[in-house]
Structures are given as C-alpha cells and as structure tokens.
Amino acid sequence: GNALKSPPISESGSREIRAAAKAINAMQMRLRDYVEDREHLAAALAHDLRTPLTRMRLRLELLRRSPAREALAHDLADIESIASSVIDFAKFEVTEEKAERIDFWSLVESVADSFEDASFDEDATPSRGLICIARPVALRRCITNLIQNAVTYGKKAHLGVRRTGDTITLSIRDEGPGIPQAKLDAVFGSFVRLEESRNRTTGGLGLGLTIARNIARGAGGEVILSNYPGGGLLTELRLPVAA
Ligand SMILES: Nc1ncnc2c1ncn2[C@@H]1O[C@H](COP(=O)(O)OP(=O)(O)O)[C@@H](O)[C@H]1O
Ligand SMILES: [Mg+2]
Questions:
Q1: Which fold has domain 15-94?
Q2: 141 within ligand 1 shell (Cβ under 6 A)
Q3: CA distance 82 to 50
Q4: Calpha distance 147→145 (Å, rounded)
Q5: Is the minimum distance from the CB of 204 to ligand 1 under 6 angstroms?
Q6: What digits encode the pLDDT tens for the residues 64-115?
C-alpha cells in the first residue's frame, strides 16, 4: 500500500518520541521489504509458469480423446486460472506503468461497454470532462474488477459518476444480496471469498477487490463498499480530481 512508501517520520523531539519514531521507521522499512519481496516473488513465479503451461496446453491438444485427456484438460484450466490471477495481482503491483491524466467518464464508459449487464443510471447527470491522474491500464483493471463483481454477484450494475468538491466518485449499485456488514472489510483481503461464492466454478480467487483497492489507493483514492438501503451492494470508487 501507499503508507509503506511514505517517507520516514522525523526522528526528533523528546527522547520517547525519538525512540518511537525510530521504531516505527524500522518497522516500516522491514514491512516494505517484505511486501516488495512478495510482489517480486509473485511476478517471477507468474512469469515462469507461463511457458510450461503453454507447452502443456499444446501437448494436450495432440493427445487422443479420452477420459484421461478430459480430466487433464480440466486440471490444466484450473491451474491456468490460478496462474492468471497471480499474474494480474503481481502485474499491477510491480509494473512501472506511469500515471497520466485520464478522462474518467470515457474510461468508465468504455469498460461498461464490455458488460451487457452494466448501464448508467437514467437520472445520473453525466459528469464528463472529469480528469484524474492514474496508471491507465491499472485503473481500467480496477474499474473492471468492481463492475465484474456487481454483475457476477449482483446480476446488474447501475453506474453513476459524480463530482463532489475535489473528489470523483464512480458508484456501482447492484441487485444482489449485498455483503454481511461484518464482512465488508474482510472481503478486501487476498484470497477472501464468501461462503456462497466459494464453491462457484465462475469468478476468481478472491483477489479482485484486493487489486482494485491497491490500484485506487495508488492513485490517492479509495474503494468503499456499503449495503444499499433498498438492497444490493453499493461499491464506490473515489479518486481525487486532477488540478
Ligand atoms: N457485488 C457483490 N455482491 C455480493 N458479494 C460480493 C460482491 N462483490 C464481491 N463480493 C464477495 O466478495 C468476495 C471477494 O471478491 P473479489 O475480491 O472480487 O474476489 P472474487 O470475485 O475472485 O471472488 C467475492 O467472492 C464475493 O463473495
Ligand atoms: Mg471479483
């Protein structure tokens, strides 16, 4: 996250404050190394998995049709889906994509276009011309993950974009069961899926919200979940308006 990359706090003041600041700075550095190690490990692993997986896929195509081949194909598909989630996870953490000015509405519109069940609210006045600063490929992934969840777990995604002060908000309301209040934080954890979705064959590994929140925070923003009073989940992506 961002907090780990913030500069160390000043180690001056009374003796106790200096000691506390020192301890906090040391801990921040240890945590940062740990997280960066994990990110690089995931990236290397994902990269190295690609070649043998492709080779296996090609070899599989050459095998004669048999129940064993079907079973292998099924296992391989599972491994591929795990690998691609890890690749996604690693990619948005490690790549050096540069932040740039992005026309937020256009980006949301183009992501929404690829989902049959996502549409803009009729009464939402279009907030065009809102510019934010973010890594474009990453932000597209973030928005995709959030809309994907709404259509997967909530049937339909109703979108709205608005500006409040210096904040751009994308709101995504769905028609699903929402998330139990006590789980609203937990679902942002890596590999966390709720009971109902755990046995689904569709959907991911529980990394979608982790990735989305990391990307939002990387751009100075946040992802917020709440249960809509009238039912369904309300997902909000907030980003600072570019000066
Ligand atoms: N719009 C939603 N409505 C209900 N539950 C949701 C919604 N979005 C996410 N969830 C729950 O949060 C879990 C974690 O979501 P996510 O991190 O995107 O992982 P994944 O979609 O791969 O399971 C999902 O498995 C699901 O249980
Ligand atoms: Mg998801």
A1: Helix Hairpins (1.10.287)
A2: no
A3: 11
A4: 6
A5: yes
A6: 999 989 988 888 888 887 777 777 776 666 667 889 999 999 999 999 999 9
